[in-house]
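Hey all, sorry for the wall of text incoming. These are the two entities for the joint prediction.
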Amino acid sequence: MLQVKEIDVYYGAIHALKKLSLEVEQGKIVTLIGANGAGKTTTLKTISGLLRPVSGTITYKGVDLTKVLPEKIVALGISQVPEGRRVFAPMTVMENLEMGAYLRKDKKEVQQDMELVFERFPRLKERRRQLAGTLSGGEQQMLAIGRALMARPELMLMDEPSMGLAPLLVREIFQIIKDINSRGTTILLVEQNAHMALSIAHKAYVVETGAIVLEGSPEQLMKSEEVKKAYLGG
Amino acid sequence: MATGEALLQLPFTVNKGEVAIMLEFVQQLVNGLSLGAIYALIALGYTMVYGIIMLINFAHGDIMMVGAFVGFYSITLLGTNIVMAMIFAMIACAVLGVVIEKVAYRPLRGSTRIAALITAIGMSLFLEYMTIFLLGPQQKVFPHSAFPLKEYNAMGLLITNKDIFIIVSAVVLMIILQYIIKMTKTGKAMRAVSVDREAAVLMGISVDKTISITFAIGSALAAAAGVMVGVYYNTINPLMGIIPGLKAFVAAVLGGIGIVPGAMVGGFVMGILETFVSGYGSSLYRDAVAFGVLILILLIKPTGLFGKDTGEKV
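and here's what came out:
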């Protein structure tokens, strides 16, 4: 579904991604784990067009994403739950969800999808007229996920959805990710919480200083001494 | 010269009684409301543009001036009435605003804020002196035929049809603006872009298009204000945008730059303050007081009356 091939990305003079390649198969949860600053967020930003690679290709269903305007990439079926949630704080919960469906013209179905989001996240329904900035961290994360779902994505890019959340909430969020995937949405999940990420993924990549250093099934990676030492606290 | 001063010749004999003092006060308030409505409309454009691209568009007052001239020619050459003149001016300036953003500001979007600010000042001078070059530096008298003055005496208060026209049309425009910002998809997209441009892009919102729309709306409001200035002061000239533009900027800062309701309130406060200073003090001080407000607000509460003290957003 998505092939990232040997991309090189720079932040000014910093060589952030070095010939990074990865592949996401339709219907799967693929996770990209690694330490802070390894290049996980950069990878997602490059896929969604916010950053451009100087070389390499990103192909999604046969389309070269590096030549598509970032705001058009959403229309191809890719939506993102950005790092740090990035909800529109001075706008209401409902308005945030409407923004998620910005490109959709089917008003009735948008309305239905909003009801589905509220079914999935009853807390958001209670607070639908509240400003997003007044929500708790967990609720904001749910809103960010709900907002991404409103685009009816086929591929969802999730950037550290567990960041800053209490352990119980983290569990809940990962349950939700699994559930979204089981309903047919492919997921590329970036996480520092390697343990949780590996527990739900079908395939995993380990990124270190801008390059993939390991890849394989979560079971394989969990057994790997390197991964244990560096990411699983063993 | 402010008409506010002319209106000071109250149509009743001041007998130093409390009633007269009250009446005079209310009269000043009415005069201040018209001027404030004009400042508020200009301030809205400043604040909307700042909210979305963090740029003080110093050419904004001059866009108002262009609006006044379009209105003037619409009345004198095309023979339209004042409402049509205002609509023409709004359309013309909406286009002008979009073109200015595209030509002058968009290429600088990634650069420093000071570069964009200097460009805005350059654009301001360009509009002023291009108008002088094309139309001459003389002031033009806004045709009385387009707006025959009527005065109403309500319980001792002198209200002109100019005041009514300005206040009513400003309020209507503000209601329409609020509707667009709060209720329409475009307005929500404008807010989303101003809160977090990158997140907005991830929603599929076109930042360029949204910024263009913001300039179009802000410039159209300035154009409406320009026609109102023509009606209010009777004369227009190519440099008429400078002082009202600066005062509207103060109004926007007073309300909290980037905050739409703040610009409205700030505009009315500035207008009322100015007429009170002219009425009770001396009109010589009115500009000094206006800019004194700017200094005070920057010293005491730089985020403005409606601003939250969050510091610079990063």
